[in-house]
Amino acid sequence: MALTRVTKHIIHGSLLVQFKYTENSGSWVLSSSRTTFTKINNKNVVMTPQYADSILENSASMTMRQEAGNNNNDQLAIALFVNSSNEYEQTNILGNQPYGNGHSHTGGRNDRTAPTRRHGHVTNQRTAVGFTHTYTPASTNAQDMDVRARNISGDRNFSVQDFFFICKEISIGITSLSGDQT
User: Fold this and answer.
1) Which one of 2.60.120.760, 3.30.70.100, 3.30.420.10, 2.40.30.170 gives the CATH number of domain 15-96+125-171?
2) Quick check: pTM over 0.70?
3) Cβ atoms of residues 149 and 163 within 8 Å
4) Fewer beta carbons within 10 Å, N or C terminal of the chain?
5) Nearest Cα residue to 27 out of 124, 157, 160
């Protein structure tokens, strides 16, 4: 049997190293007295990167709904916190009045000028919200990640439903070495 010599091989590319997730299948309500960022249903993910040069990719999706308010223009916000520091923030969720007016109009179904006047209201607005954010922790220390929410401009309750949060560690280059055989 002939002897073969195996040489070094270096493989570069991305590789999913690990992932962790948390979810909340029910509804979580933030009380109107809370205007600071509050952790969504006390859910978090703790991940210890295996490589210091890895990328941590965080993705969250949810539905946010204003509670009991006609024609309000409350603005909601969500944020990704890493080790209790605000890493990424998304603002101006809901709150914008369509077509530059306050969610009501006059005019009937067939006659929009008069004498039939109807006022329409938008109640309990709901919107799908999500983000994907990546960062490099530059260490192999544990990363405590969570998503928080707050009402920026109003004093009404709002709810978060169908919350899903996933964190992935992605390596940016794996080197694989094999030894010599003789």
Assistant:
1) 2.60.120.760
2) yes
3) no
4) N
5) 160
